[in-house]
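Quick question, first post here. What does this chain look like in 3D?
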Amino acid sequence: MTTTTPTLIEVRSVLVATLGLEYRLDQLDESTELFGTLPELDSLAVLELVSALEDHFEIVIEDEEFSGEIFATLGSLAEFVQDKTATRASATR
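> Answer (accepted):
Ran it through. Tokens below.
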């Protein structure tokens, strides 16, 4: 599945705001590696980011959904969020 540009842009905005990465905004794209590569994204920051994503996108991310694959790249995170919002949207129909 290809991540839509609006979702990627929104996820990137939440990431930047949560981790204070304004200085790196222009460097963050779909292939940007996150957990394990981005020093600002430690285990506590992951929890803060998840909370911020839940609030922003009005989704719930369950503990069992957490995996290294989701936080591998900005693109994988955006794809996960896109899937969650699509699931939420179809459930409310």
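The chain has a mean pLDDT of 91.
The radius of gyration is 12 Å.
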